Amino acid sequence: MILTVTPNPSLDRTYEVHALKRGEVIRAETERVDPGGKGVNVSRAVTAAGRRAVAVLPLGGAPGALVADLLDAQGIEVAPVPIAGATRSNIALVEADGTLTKINAPGPELSAAEQELLLETVREQSPDADWIACCGSLPRGLAPSWYADVVTRAHAGGARIALDTSGRALLEALRARPDVVKPNAEELAEAVGRPLATVGDAVKAAEELRRWGARTVLASLGADGQLLVDDAGTWFGTARVDAVRSNVGAGDSSLAGFLVAGGSGPEALASALAHGAAAVRLPGSVMPAPADLDPAAVSVTADVPVDRVLEEAAS
């Protein structure tokens, strides 16, 4: 079982439009409503891969009730933490060329009692977990050190923990030595405080995060591929994608692919790449099933192209 923790979940509405024109009335071609939040997406991807997932998340108001219903309909076990505020609603606009525009609401503020109940729910659900995946931004009320506390408690209970967050929350959590951190290129650049222009720059940044406490770094470089840096070595991988339909949740699907494949080594990196590539070929935040994967399109090597210039340099 993979336990996911999403402190700031959402109800996500995704609209596909031909083109986004500011100041005009735009008619959507399709509309999807999905349970959202990075950890929620990991749960959905794990379930789509045929594994058991349990989602811990604070839920409140009508949007929260709908998120719970949608997850239940997808066969995902929900361990809800009732809160007084309403779960946030986010909007994603996907243009015909794959360009994604997102509007993310800030979310409710959690009281001290709700924060403690969230931690206690994680503790109650963690004994059966192969991995605990803590993902996304922190809602108002939670200190930047909150993820560090979760990592410390998880390790005390013998669990492995994967962390996908950014900014100060990531830096604070590193001191607790999470088993895996999964930054994208922008988050990696922000963490080390310098721009990343090449794959080699990303490798050095990942190594720096490991010196600060991360045991493994799985770094997404967007269209350029992914890096895996751990005690055993460094690997670089790419996945061919002929057409991008939606990037929503692709990174979360990638983390799920990494974890369901064991969470270490080049085989897990290949699984992460296959899941991420499959996700971008699907509409909205639909998570890929095994039939959607194309392992033949994935390439992983220990011969890292350190001089390769990133298509989208991170600063």
Automatic annotation (TrEMBL):
UniProt keywords (A-Z) are:
ATP-binding, Kinase, Nucleotide-binding, Transferase
Carbohydrate kinase PfkB domain residues:
12-290
One of this protein's Pfam families, by short name? PfkB
Give me any GO biological process, just one.
carbohydrate catabolic process
**Any GO CC annotation of this UniProt entry:** cytosol
Question: Do the record's keywords include Repressor?
Answer: no
One of the record's GO molecular function terms: ATP binding
Q: Does the keyword Cell cycle apply?
A: no
**SUPFAM superfamilies in the cross-refs:** Ribokinase-like
Look up the domain of life of the source.
Answer: Bacteria
Q: Which family does it belong to?
A: Belongs to the carbohydrate kinase PfkB family.
Q: Which PANTHER family match?
A: 1-PHOSPHOFRUCTOKINASE, 1-PHOSPHOFRUCTOKINASE-RELATED
NCBIfam families recorded: 1-PFK, pfkB
Its recorded name reads: 1-phosphofructokinase
Q: From which organism does this entry originate?
A: Streptomyces glaucescens
